[in-house]
Structures are given as C-alpha cells and as structure tokens.
Design brief:
The protein is mainly alpha-helical. It has eight helices and three strands. It is elongated, with a radius of gyration of 20 Å.
C-alpha cells in the first residue's frame, strides 16, 4: 500500500513538473502563439499595425531569443523534475528509509524558481516587443487585444470559473496560454 501511495506521489510530482515541451509547435508563428499570444497578435495584424521591416526583424529576433531561453528553462524543469522523482524513489536496500525532506524541499523550490524565471522571461519578451512599437501602434494593439485576444472568450467566462494550467502550475490570467486543456474550477470564497 505504501508503494502505491509513493508511486501516486511520484506520478503527481511528474505531472506538476514535466512540461509539455514535446507539444510545442515547430513553426515560428505557432511558437509565438504558444509562447506569448501578444507577439502572435502583433504578427497576425502586422498590416493593420503597419509594422516596418525593421520592426518585423526585431520581433522575429526577440521571438527566437525567447524561444531558445524557454527551451533551455523547460529542459531545466524536466531535469529538476526527474531529480525530484529520484529523491522520492524508495531506497531498494532500505525501502522503509524516509525521504530526505530537505533535499526534496530544495528541489521543489528550485522547480518553482525555474518556472517563475520562465514566466518573467516571457513577460520581459512581451514588454520588449511592445517597446518596438510606436505610440500609435501600441494604441492599435491595445484595441486588438480587447477585441481579438485568443483568451478573450476565456476572460469573459473566467468571471464564473477559475482556469488552471497543470503544466504551468498556475491559473489564468497569470498564465495566458496553456499547452493542454484548461482545468475548470469553481472559485472559492476568499
């Protein structure tokens, strides 16, 4: 029975820390949509925003830089998740031996830090992308975000439900996109 419960704990840990990078689309435009919808929206509406060729090149460079950084951090998350699983695995020589809790706690904190760093990097990339736009283009982008945002329907529905992303271990709108289906949760009274 203890083994089943331990395996369940390991499986839960894996679900929390193993990112769905295998599902990341290979196409640059799709990666932009996967990584940060604001930049995808800029690319999708480049004619309406009247982007210059220099702006397009800079946005593509920012996208490529962020994608590389995201892949590295996702790999770090995967490795840290595997290390956590190894820490939680029972010692075959002494199955009753307790888990080294300080090491497990440190690994869980490391996983949280990597995830946080990834989110911050994404926010910085979005802000750097918006900074490439003129004031007029930013105004048009704001209107597009209100009207055309991929999560606009979700934002309206979010008034009655919370949406949780398992791989990001966070709720919408903290995480604007999720590589797997959102988990719909009834809000708790605060």
């Amino acid at each position: 029975m203890k083994l089943k419960s331990l395996l369940g704990g390991i499986a839960s840990a894996l679900l929390l820390v193993m990112p769905a990078i295998a599902q990341a689309p290979p196409n640059t435009d799709e990666r932009a949509d996967f990584a940060w919808p604001v930049v995808a929206l800029i690319f999708d509406h480049q004619k309406e925003l009247a982007l210059s060729s220099a702006q397009k090149e800079n946005l593509e460079r920012l996208l490529a830089d962020f994608t590389r950084e995201a892949i590295r951090r996702q790999a770090d998350l995967t490795i840290a998740g595997l290390e956590l699983v190894a820490l939680l695995r029972p010692d075959p020589a002494d199955p009753g031996k307790p888990i080294d809790m300080p090491k497990a706690e440190a690994k869980i904190l490391e996983i949280g830090r990597i995830g946080t760093d990834l989110q911050i990097a994404g926010f910085r990339a979005v802000e750097a992308s918006k900074a490439l736009l003129t004031t007029e283009q930013r105004s048009k982008l704001a209107a597009l975000l209100d009207d055309d945002r991929p999560g606009a329907q979700l934002a309206k529905a979010a008034q009655s439900y919370w949406y949780y992303c398992t791989s990001a271990t966070a709720y919408y709108p903290t995480v604007p996109t999720c590589p797997e289906p959102w988990i719909k949760i009834l809000p708790r009274a605060q």
